[in-house]
Amino acid sequence: MSHFEYKDGVLHAEGVALTAIAEEFGTPAYVYSKAQLLENFAAYANAAAGRDALVCYAMKANSNLAILDLLARQGAGFDIVSGGELLRVIAAGGDPKKVIFSGVGKSVEEMRLALEHDILCFNVESIPELHRLNEVAGSMGRKARVSLRVNPNVDAKTHPYIATGLKANKFGVAFSDALETYRVAATLPHLDVAGIDCHIGSQLLDDAPLLEALDKLIELIDTLGAEGIHLHHLDIGGGLGIDYGDGAPVPVGEYLGRLFKRIDAWRAEKHGGKPIKVIFEPGRSIVGNTGVLLTKVEFLKHGEEKNFCIVDAAMNDMARPALYQAWMDMQPVVQGKPGGTVFDVVGPICESGDWLARDRDLAVEPGDLLVMKTAGAYGMTMASNYNTRGRVAEVMVDGSKTHLVRRRETPQELFALESLIK
Ligand code: LLP
């Protein structure tokens, strides 16, 4: 069940009408449902219950402290890609010992910070990164736990900008180089070779490519074991998609069920029954349907070829349509107006690429509210201040209560860090 539903013709987030939220907090605003967030996390937690497994939420999808806090309380770990994200985890009360650090370009300072906080594991993506981490850890008198991000060369069949597991992508160590890279890692004195990981892409509706990637990782674990390199964990990455209104993904429970079944069979047959911890890095499937972007219609403009519905949200608030030509569902907050027109829904930014939805049949007037649905993932985290537009307010709904979890930025704040030359 969705926690965004129409009641008496007005869209609600849980028990609160979005019209009331617009009145209290203004527009544009991201509105999140706490219940939806907890339900999404529980789908992973329940499917992994009783197993040695850790769900490390990929916080790049949405890193608001309130969201991190709620997930941390459910036992979530975090997948981070910067020192800044680690500081957010700590600020939200998350446990750094449940943090894994992904990304191709970790700086010395970021490695140091992560080692100071004794994070669970570095997901290393290249030999130079292994050497840098070994040096940094050595200089601190520590050992860094590492996993190698292996590129299994599996086609995730998703948008090219969000496919990451192919040979042509910048990510990971090529499958054919993995053994040699592990051998290098095993010789470095300040590294503790702990695991293997991959992440093949995002918004996957089918789990077949993920299971194919799993088979490749398992094959490598066996090869490494034969060389005396024994791994303690297997991290399958994130990537499970969500329903943007144009197709539903395989349910989380089914995917995890199939994955654990394969792992169990392999452990029994080839791994001598030895345990292996399983790590997941889901982002979108935890927060995507947790949020909507609430926006107000400013003007309607009827052009020669197109009709435009100009709203107060723009590509700086939600970049996915402009960046990936992503199809995002737009709906009126108040239903039931007669006589729709086909509009492009666009923002006020001075770019033709500033559109949120194209060719949508909408019955709207200036002043009406619209929502972009399923906007909780890669919305606010990708927002910018382009055109000196402050980032929008974020509101979390919990039953009949609303909480402002990030206030709207003021224009003054946007240039407060700048100075004139003397
Ligand atoms: N782990 C790693 C190493 C990743 O790079 C990502 C996402 C994830 C986990 C989480 O993937 P998810 O479960 O969310 O699919 N901005 C794009 C998506 C970029 C994904 C980048 N990596 C979008 O809006 O579609």
Describe the structure.
By secondary structure, this protein is an alpha/beta fold. The protein folds into 2 domains: 4-32 and 288-414, Lyase, Ornithine Decarboxylase, Chain A, domain 1 (Beta Barrel); 103-280, TIM Barrel (Alpha-Beta Barrel), CATH 3.20.20.10. It has 12 helices and 21 strands. Strands 4, 14, 15, 16, 17, 18, 19, 20 and 21 form a 9-stranded mixed beta sheet that branches. Helix 2 (34-47) runs parallel beside helix 9 (252-269), helix 5 (108-116) crosses helix 6 (127-139) and helix 8 (208-226) runs parallel beside helix 9. The longest helix has 19 residues, at 208-226. It starts with a strand and ends in a 7-residue tail after the last helix. The mean pLDDT is 96. Bound molecules: ligand LLP. Ligand LLP is lined by residues 58, 61, 79, 102, 162, 199, 202-203, 237-239, 281-285, 320, 324, 378.
Number of domains: 2
The assigned structural class equals alpha/beta
**Mean pLDDT rating:** 96
Q: Can you tell me the CATH topology of the largest domain?
A: TIM Barrel
Share of helical residues = 25-40%
* Count of DSSP-assigned helices: 12
Tell me the overall shape. Answer: globular
> How far do the termini sit from each other?
60 Å
Q: What's the CATH architecture of the largest domain? A: Alpha-Beta Barrel
Please count the beta strands (DSSP E, at least 2 residues each).
21
Low-confidence stretches: none
Q: What hetero molecules are bound to the protein chains?
A: ligand LLP
CATH class designation of the largest domain: Alpha Beta
Please, what is the CATH homologous superfamily of the largest domain? Alanine racemase
Quote the beta fraction: 25-35%
Largest sheet: 9 strands, mixed
Global Rg: 23 Å
